[in-house]
Amino acid sequence: MKIVRGVVAMLGYTNVKRKSVTYSVVEVGQQAILDLTVPKRLIKYLTRALHSPDESVLFILDGQLVGIQSAGSMHYHYANRMAGLIFVVLSVVAIPVFGLGLIMLRYSYKYLRRAGSGAVLAQRGARPV
Known about the structure:
Shape: elongated
Distance between the termini: 19 Å
Largest sheet: 5 strands, mixed
Strand content: 35-45%
Strand order of the largest sheet: 1-6-7-8-9
Number of strands: 9
Order of helices and strands: EEEEEHEEEHHE
């Protein structure tokens, strides 16, 4: 998990999807993060960090914002591990169907990694969103 600290200075253009928004660029301090995907539940916290003069901490995994700490509170995107495990089982069952299960395994692996990083943030005292 990548940790980026600094004042959120700018949010670039957006590409809105059903459950997430992808920002073309997010400036944090002197760093520019390209193509950052933000779950819709974390957008309001990112916007608050943009309007706050305080330093923020962004927790990023595989180009997706997993959690954010700003103004003394920390929040993370909750991902259910049980749903991820069920998806893995369905993926393994679907492998004989034209290899579809292999594609599904890739997405379930990413989902379980995000769920694991959310659990790490929860141990640090973050609140689920």
